[in-house]
Amino acid sequence: MHNDLVAALDIGGTKIAGALVGGGGEILRRCRRPTPAREDGATVMAAVRAVLDDLAADAPLWERVIRLGIGSAGPVDASTGVVSPVNVPGWRDFPLVDEVGLAVGALPVVLVGDGVAMTAAEHWLGAARGRANALCMVVSTGVGGGLVLGGRLHPGPTGNAGHIGHISVDLDGDPCPCGSRGCVERIASGPNIARRALENGWRPGPEGDATAAAVARAARAGDPVASASFERAARALAAGIAATAALVEIETAVIGGGVAGAGEVLFAPLRRALSDYATLSFVRGLEVVPARMGADAGLVGAAAAAQAFSGAVGARPPASSV
Ligand SMILES: [Zn+2]
């Protein structure tokens, strides 16, 4: 019997997932609860504790856990262990690491943003594996991301580095909820793809599905307004990716999240647009690929980040990320 497992939490606006993750990224136990996102902070924390209790209920496995990683919707502040997820109003400057620490006793706890967690997973076992310099992105309800630089996860001082969703790519563009204008997220997130299609005359089918997935189906069927909305999203993503490549010389951009499920409806215009924006010799070879870790990226990545950043004695990053 080894002490070799990492407990992982993936905390978002709709669900709180937990897992016990083995040294090869395998998930040995998992559970999830809906996030009571409209309740007060203590109620949300009670749901987190319930997930931890579910994990600990398998005593022989729980005894093997050596640390705990948390990937949380942001903003987070990994330096202080505090989170203020936009979609969980009851948590503002909420001391998540301290609260989780009370629940798990002596286990070291590592917090990162959900974009950084996804990046850790893709770098460890997914589409950025073996890449020394990569930008990994989640394009769904929002747009998040993280960076691998020089072969290592680069979370930045507060755990938010690579947050490409709030790079401005349209100087005089629409106001973004973050306070800026013309952000990548304001153009390329799923709700914004759907909003723009509706504003330009696209109408959902009789089933009433007005999500970005429905817009993608319409685009695939040849609807020009639906295609144009994805084209615009692709250009925003390409401009953000090209800017990142020029700044830090990434070789790969990995794109996951629900909107990436549109497949070539998104990736074909994205690759075309990238050739418009990524023009300098050192960024021209940049590749754009779909993410591979799917819905478990947050959990596996939280475990990988805990391994990489735990200050505990004997802590070692996963072999593939050093
Ligand atoms: Zn913004």
TrEMBL record:
Organism: Streptomyces xinghaiensis
Family: Belongs to the ROK (NagC/XylR) family.
Lineage: superkingdom: Bacteria
InterPro entries: ATPase_NBD, ROK, ROK_cs
Gene3D superfamilies: 3.30.420.40
Record-given protein name: ROK family protein
A Pfam family: ROK
